[in-house]
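Below is how a single chain appears once it has passed through the pipeline. First comes the sequence as given, then the structure the pipeline wrote out for it. We keep one example in the README because the format questions we get most often are answered faster by looking than by reading.
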Amino acid sequence: MNIGVGKFKGFMRITNNLGQFQMLALDQRNSLKKMIIERKGSVDERDLVKVKRSILKSLSGKVTAVLVDGEYGFPENLKYVSHYTGIILSAEKSGYTVDEKNPGERLSNLYRKDICEFAKRNSMDAVKLLIYWSENAHRETKNHQMRMVEELGQTCADQDLLYILEILTYNVEEREKTKSILRAIKVFSEEKYKVDLFKVEPIVKSPDFELNRENVYEFSNGKPWVILSGGMDVEKFKDIVKWNCQLGASGFLAGRVIWKGAPLYIDAPELMDLHLNSTALYNLELLKSSAAEAIPFFKTPYFKGLENVKLTIR
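Resulting structure:
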């Protein structure tokens, strides 16, 4: 297969020396605000910057990449990222807007229109776009989401920048969740979207749907995928990580499951640092251990080994 030097370099920068992803999500904005408000009753920009900075100082050297937003602590907080750690920039605004024509349906929006060019100019290793997806949404809503994914994918291709797509499904019954996740991956695995790596909700066992590595890869067109945590407890997530890696996941991109205790010490920086360098570090190492069987990105069916990859230049 052919891949641009920029995209290939992105893959190499955000994986370990085995080609596995062990990434830390730190682009939370609205959810982090809520956590801080619950603790101290109010929140301002300095609080978010402070928490993000402490997490980067304590944990960035222990992961293959960090996912950051461009609103709180950017670019100053990048000084606290380990030299050996890749940096991914979020493309979307936090949260979503409600479709006025179709109440209850969610529309994603870009943080800035030139996000790919901005990321490339500022030497980011990849961009990540989060979209909300419901199979039951009206055609207009789905068209908006698909158009955004496609346009950003094309711009990333033009910039030769690694493109990560995060998909959050909604308005689906729990027993149908796994099928819905897989069908969503299949939609956006079409080459016109130019997605390089999927970040998806964990795939769980389904009594009426057989799961194995081969049929999961069929949905992703053989492309690599990682799972998110959604803030669940680490004891539960570690088992999910192990199972998903057995199904073909190439690792994880997790946030709150690792560091969600940090905002509890927003008014005591020394205790926040202590928590991050003990409990949060333990959580991270637990997940890394569970992801030992993660499939290297270059061993996925899409790549078929580094020996079959041809690098191209723009």
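The chain has one domain: 2-312.

See the next section for the split statistics.
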